[in-house]
């Protein structure tokens, strides 16, 4: 059993709205949001860690590539626990890298490096951690996407209105790169 808190982001959350409180979150009970065809669940964020890191999961089905983007001030980790995810990353010198990640595989994306991913198998799960001097970006998912109380994937993909891509991401250290071209084997 977990306690529910009211936060500035939601009426009810299993995550306390301020740092310094120990807490426990049962599987799937974090703050959930649908974005594209995926379910994002946040277990710890900037409010709890004084903006030092966040911890979240992304559950999804095989689908399209997530748009190329970068985080100017945030490092991001991709750890695969189920399924398979293809990670695309461009380093600071412009070299592009592509890797199919399976359960137990790890991918690291330094700050300011363009990246994208594509879920390659149904029922895939990414465990994500992000940290950096610019804070954390976990509230991006529910502000670009839509908060949900559901535990599963969206029945229909949630595609944000085009104007939100220009406003919401900047607030959360995310910069989309719509004209970015991947020259790897994608």
From TrEMBL:
Report the domain of life of the source organism. Answer: Bacteria
Q: Which residues form the Cupin type-2 domain?
A: 62-119
Q: Which InterPro entries match?
A: Cupin_2, QDO-like, RmlC-like_jellyroll, RmlC_Cupin_sf
Kindly give the Gene3D superfamilies that the UniProt entry links to this protein.
Jelly Rolls
UniProt-listed Pfam families:
Cupin_2
Chain positions covered by the region annotation Disordered: 1-20
Q: Which CDD domains match?
A: cupin_QDO_N_C (cd02215)
Against SUPFAM superfamilies, the record matches this protein to: RmlC-like cupins
Q: Which PANTHER family match?
A: PUTATIVE (AFU_ORTHOLOGUE AFUA_8G07350)-RELATED
- Which protein are we looking at? Cupin
Please give the organism: Streptomyces ruber
């Amino acid at each position: 059993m977990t306690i529910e808190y009211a936060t500035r982001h939601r009426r009810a959350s299993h995550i306390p709205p301020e740092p310094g409180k120990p807490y426990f979150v049962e599987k799937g009970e974090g703050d959930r949001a649908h974005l594209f065809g995926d379910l994002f669940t946040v277990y710890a964020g900037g409010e709890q860690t004084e903006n030092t890191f966040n911890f979240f999961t992304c559950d999804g089905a095989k689908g399209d590539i997530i748009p190329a983007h970068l985080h100017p001030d945030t490092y991001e980790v991709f750890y695969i626990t189920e399924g398979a995810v293809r990670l695309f990353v461009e380093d600071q010198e412009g070299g592009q890298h592509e890797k199919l990640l399976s359960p137990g595989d790890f991918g690291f994306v330094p700050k300011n490096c363009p990246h994208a991913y594509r879920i390659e198998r149904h029922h895939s799960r990414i465990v994500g951690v992000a940290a950096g001097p610019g804070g954390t970006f976990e509230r991006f998912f529910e502000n670009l996407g839509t908060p949900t109380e559901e535990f599963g994937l969206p029945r229909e993909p949630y595609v944000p209105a085009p104007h939100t891509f220009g406003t919401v991401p900047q607030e959360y250290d995310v910069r989309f790169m719509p004209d970015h071209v991947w020259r790897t084997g994608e």
